[in-house]
Structures are given as structure tokens and as C-alpha cells.
Amino acid sequence: MRDQVKDLYVGVDVGGTKIQASLITGSGSVLASNRRNTPRNCPSELTLDVIEESICELLSLQDHSLDQLSGVGIAAPGVVCSETGNIVVTPNMNLSGVELGRIMRERLGGVRVEVGNDCNLGVLGECWLGSGRSANMAVGIFVGTGIGAGIVKDHRLILGAGQSAGEIGHIVLQVPCESWRMQLRLKKGGRKRAKQSNFAEHKIKTKKAKTAKKTVINGGLVQCGCGNYGCFETLASRSAIERYIREAIACGAKSAIVDYNGGKLDVIKSGSIAKALKGGDEVVTVIVNYAATVIGYACLTVRHLLDPDVIMLGGGVIEACQKYMMPVIESVTESDRLQYAPCSRRILVSSLGDSAVVLGAVALVRSAESNMFDQICESIPKYPHILMLADDVIHIDDIAYTSDILILSDGAIHARPKSPKKEPDGFRFKDIEMVVQGGTDILILATPAAEKINLSEKCRDYLYRRGIDYRILQLKEAVQLYNNFNGRRSAVFHFNIENF
């Protein structure tokens, strides 16, 4: 019998460049993480070794053992059969055809192991603790090197008959053929020969002719990694943005992106793109606006097909460039003329960052154990009870606090970091960003100057785009709300008005 002294799990995110293993409690608190580089151009056994070593090293450093785990969740890219834990196919890696679930169970001494697609589990994590936590139906779209996605309805992943539902990155947004007018060589005013297209061609059989072969023109479109043409991923991913920038510069356009990206253009990092946007680079601004417009129309397509409560946007490109991309995306979706019933649909930014996938992997294990994901969502950390015995002093666990503190979403208490830079509202963005990590339903901001404070636009925008409610309250009111609130909560306590 296992000595499960704690409700502990390990979530593992197996990516093309790194493998992240995180030790996580049943209520979703990330206790520790480690990362290792993913082996390249090697047998699958070596990748399996690194996964096993990452888990064992993580446990050892935290003074835990495999026998104390309730389960391990593993996320991998590509098509994954979640029922068997087998990897059907995974791009740019050596795990295709590997029975990952069975092998890791054997290697880990019989610990329960569940395996799922990384993007699906990222959305599941966001629906547990992130921006999709209050949604009955949520779609997550992650814009990085490629574009991945996942769908969750009624707290369950929608996987599809072939385990590939939600492959939004591969919806076709550009039809890879000539228009009927071009195919008939028509011009306005009658049937005349139109200028021949110089598009590349490939031949397919059509239903119309039994013997003759018709041609379908791929329109010069870039072929997607999936093999198709005209995919969403080829139009708006980081790889697409890179390609556009290189083409623009090759055509003589001037851009500072080369300097921002260390003098290279083979791989353009999302952070470099964000710096170019901040610097007002025209080429990068135009290209990113185009990509954001495409993403907006993809969101519109998702709405028309599924009508989810929430569409969550994440991935490296969105995280780095959301300030510039979200207004464009929202303007497209708000221009929709299709009539619909009154509702509170939102397009939000994912809020869990690198933890989304590992948390989703743990949620997969827990939902497989209990078959009741809604009960998992109801489990919350143990929060401190706050006593206020004087106007400017609070007590937590018999410790008196008179200096500013942060209470994180997992209940941990931290002294407020000192910073020489003060924001006009007194509540620093970095404090707010720190306390809401890991999932929160409400952020409580306590200060003696509550009636004089308004959050900065940067702070308000950050919370709004992640669907996080907040309250600015006097200390006494803040203590009452914190103690009486039933959901997940975070707080920033300021005691001295002179700190502002």
C-alpha cells in the first residue's frame, strides 16, 4: 500500500525543446518545478529516460518519493490516445508510436499515469484555475511557433473520434484553388482568356470526370506542417510572422527587428517582436496587425461554430504582444453582424503561463480518478484566517503584520518586495501579477487610502483580460471579505499610506 502522506501529483510537459516537471498539490498549488532540455535526434528511449529522471529528481529535491504520489500526468504534442496513453504521432520528436502511459507506469513503479495532448491539457488547466474557470464551454488557442488549441465543455475535454478535435491551427482559412472565374478564364464583359496564373499546381481527381484529371491550384500558399495548404497556422503563428518579416526585408523594407533580434532572422523571438512593436517599427507593426486580424477572424469562426462562453488566447506570441494584438482581435470579433441572444461571451488572455499544461496534466489524472472534474474545481487551498486587533495591525497565525504583505492564491504569505519605482496608484503591477498566479476568483486590494485609489490602466487591463474580479477596500473591510469569501482568493495589504 502506498504511503500517500500528501495529496501530491506530478505534471510533466514534454515539449520539443524542454521537459518541465512540476510537483503539484490536489488543490493546484505548484510546489516546485524543474526543466531539462529535450533530447534531439536520438532514440525514444533517451527521451523516456529524461522524463523519468526529471520526475525522480524533482521528488528527491523536495524530499518526497514515488510512493507518496497520487498520480502523474504527462502532456505531449501531437495526436495522443488518452484512453491508452499511446502517442499516435508527434511532430519534431521521437515519440510517435510509443506507448508512453504503459512504459512510464512500469518505470515509475506502478504509479497512476495519464497522458494527453499538451494543448488540450493547457486548456483544461486554464479551466481549472485560469481564465476559463467559470466557463461552461471554453476554447483555448495558443499562438507560438505553430498554433495549438483545445476545447472543454462541462469540464470535460472534447477529443473527437480521431482524438484530434480542436485542431484550430489547421482550419483552412485560405482555399488552395483558383476561383471559378479564373478556372473559366473569365473577365468582366464576357468569356475571354484571363491571364494565366503562375501558381504552382498539383493534380487531383474530381467527381465530375471519370477519366480526365482536373487541377487544383494551391495558389502559391505555404504548405503547413500538417501537409495541407491555407491553414490558420501558416497565416498567424510566430513562424508565419517570421516569414513575413524576412520577405518584407528581402523586398527592401527597412526594419529594426534585426537589431532587436541579435542580428539574426532565422528565428525571431516573440520578445524581439514585442520590442520592435514598442519601438514603433513600421514593418513589424503592420505584420503583427495582419496576424492579429487573422486571429480575430479565426475567433469569429470559432464563435459561429461552437459559441463558447470564453475563448482564451495564449502562447508566446500572445503573452509577449497582447498589448498590441488584443485590441485588433477584439475589434474584429466586435464587428460581427450575426445576431445572437444576449450573453456574456469573452475573449480572454490565458493566465497560467508555463503552469497551464502541467496543471492540466494533473487535472487529467484527478478527473480520471474521481470522474468528477467539477469536484476538482471546488477544491481550494487552505487559506489563513486574518484577525484585525488594531487599525493598522493584522494577525495571522499569531504573527502580527504592520508592513505591507502579499497573500498569494495558494495562501502563502510574502513580504511586499521593496522597489524604488512607485506607480501612481500605489499598487504595483508586479505585486498584482505575482499574487494572482495559480488561479484566483477575486483579488482584494487593502489600503487606508481606498477611497482615493484607482488602479493604473496597465493593472486594470491585466485583470480584465484574464477575467479576474478585484476590490479596493479599507483594511477592515478587506479582512472581512478575505475571511468570508468561499472561492480562490489573493490579496495585497498596504498598511502605510506614505508608501504610495
Give a structural overview.
With 500 residues, the protein is of the alpha/beta class. The protein folds into four domains: 8-130 and 352-378, Nucleotidyltransferase, domain 5; 134-167 and 226-349, Nucleotidyltransferase, domain 5, CATH 3.30.420; 177-220, no CATH class; 386-499, 3-Layer(aba) Sandwich (Hypothetical Protein Mth938, Chain: A). Helices cover 33% and strands 22% of the residues. It has helices at residues 44-61, 100-107, 118-129, 180-183, 233-236, 238-250, 257-260, 270-278, 282-306, 316-334, 355-370, 373-378, 429-436, 457-464, 475-484, and strands at 8-14, 18-25, 30-37, 69-76, 79-81, 86-89, 113-117, 137-143, 147-153, 156-157, 201-204, 214-217, 310-314, 346-349, 386-390, 393-396, 399-401, 405-407, 413-415, 442-446, 469-473, 489-493. The strands form six sheets. It has a five-stranded mixed beta sheet with strand order 3-2-1-4-7, with helices on both faces. The protein has a five-stranded mixed beta sheet with strand order 10-9-8-13-14, sandwiched between helices. Helix 3 (118-129) crosses helix 11 (355-370) and helix 8 packs across helix 10. The longest helix has 25 residues, at 282-306.
